[in-house]
Amino acid sequence: MREEVIVLALIPCAVVEKSLGEVRLDSRRRSHHALGRRSIAEQERRRILRLQASALLILAIAAVLTLLYVAKVILVVVLISVLIAFVLAPLVDLLTRFDIPNALASLIAVLLLVIAGGAATYLSYSRALSFMQELPQYKARIQQMMGGLREEAEQIQRTTETMLPSSEADKKTVTVRQSSDWTDLVSRNASSVSELVLTITFVPFLVFFMLSWQDHVRSASVMLFSMENRNTAYVMLGLIARMIRSFIVGNFIIGVFLSVCSIAVFGMMGLPYFYFLGAISGFLSLIPYLGVLLAIIPPLIADLGHLTTATFLIVVAVVLGLHLIAMNVLYPKILGKRLQLNPLAVTISLLFWGWLWGAMGLILAVPLMGACKIICDHIERLRPYGAWLGE
């Protein structure tokens, strides 16, 4: 009897314990479901944040590219002024050693630059004017060459028309070609030329202020960074300045070498104005990719009246050979240690800046990429990109 009473007493306890177990299990399931929903919500929030960050990055890149394209004239003038200021900075430092004030030394350096640029412009103009005066002597030769080219073009057109006959509608169509006068061309481009000349006049003033305020600009630029990053910024600015100066001086040395060799060869060939043509051809050869073609044009035009196949081949061989020597021997020796850029990075940089800024982009592409590599090498998060740009 007593055992039956004990059993009957334990039944409610078992029921209660079972109910409590079910309650605990249910609460555990609810907590798991809540954690799962919270985890899914957190993942969704992170995904949305990543999408927003990617969208903002794309918009920022688009805004920067738009700014670079719209303000390309201003940016190109400023960058050219920076390059010239780096070239003249040693001269200013030399003058200040003789107790000449920094502002006066900067003014003397800029005046020497203007005088040198004016002298080069005057000599170029006088040589070009002399060539234009002698150009009528080449009239028969030019007409003969243009006649041959015209006959070949007409032959190609007739062959094309024979292979691809025109329809009846094309035969009945009358094509009217309006001849453009050179005065119209000049009047249309006068505004662009005047804007270019006005923009160039700012270069001496920018160079003067950059030279006279270089210490203030450098210290103020370093102060823009936080205290723990100022030493790194100071080192980066120094390395960029040294790289740009080495780039310009190295290009000048290579250009002088190419000019001297071109002058010697063109003089032995008996080309008119060989000293002038050699200097132009030597420095034009420094332009990436297009330099070879541009360096060939001046000597060929100067010898247009007596141009033969042998002369053409010799000029092409000389310019091409000097260009290959400069790019494969002189550039690695003189500029390789300073730039430390791999050929793929240089090619991509030339393609990008040439597309964005045209011919001036090709000239500024290498120092811009070199500055980017120096910045990447001194920022922890960007060091992998700097390693990719390096050799």
Please describe what this structure looks like:
The chain has about 400 residues and is an all-alpha fold. It has 16 helices and no strands. It has helices spanning about 1-70, 70-95, 100-135, 140-165, 170, 180-200, 200-210, 215-225, 230-270, 275-285, 290-300, 310-335, 335-340, 345-355, 360-375, 385-390. It is extended. Residues about 5-10 have low confidence and may be disordered.
Characteristic terms for this protein:
single chain; 391 residues; 16 helices; extended
Give a quick precis of the structure:
The chain has 391 residues and is mainly α. It has helices spanning 2-70, 72-96, 102-134, 139-163, 168-172, 182-200, 202-212, 214-223, 230-269, 274-284, 291-302, 309-334, 336-339, 343-357, 359-377, 383-389.
In round numbers, the mean pLDDT is 76
Instruction: Return the structural class.
Output: mainly alpha
Rg calc: 36 Å
- Spans of 5+ residues with little confidence (pLDDT < 50)? 5-10
Secondary structure layout plus pairing:
Blueprint: H1 2-70, H2 72-96, H3 102-134, H4 139-163, H5 168-172, H6 182-200, H7 202-212, H8 214-223, H9 230-269, H10 274-284, H11 291-302, H12 309-334, H13 336-339, H14 343-357, H15 359-377, H16 383-389
